[in-house]
Amino acid sequence: MTMAETILLPSRLDVKAAPGLHKTLSPMDGDVVLDASGVTHIGTQCLQVILACKQKLDAANTTLRLENLSTDCTEQLALFGLDSNFSTETAT
């Protein structure tokens, strides 16, 4: 069993963060964990990048997981109706 690549997400996942997030996630081909402990804002552009990566990894029988979700992150995923689309672990 291989270890998942863990990526600490920035606090603001907005339009300015989308190109960097895409550059980080697009080459991933194994299990990926996104640490969302510091996320305070999620924009649609970054959600699109994350969803595209998840779709690619799902097709390759690997996983993308969100861990340590901040309260803001959890609430914003729910607002977009995406709270059940990810394997998640909320920060305690």
Automatic annotation (TrEMBL):
InterPro entries membership: MlaB-like_STAS, STAS_dom, STAS_dom_sf
Domain of life: Bacteria
Domain STAS: 32-92
Pfam families: STAS_2
Database matches in CDD domains: STAS_anti-anti-sigma_factors
Protein name per Swiss-Prot or TrEMBL: STAS domain-containing protein
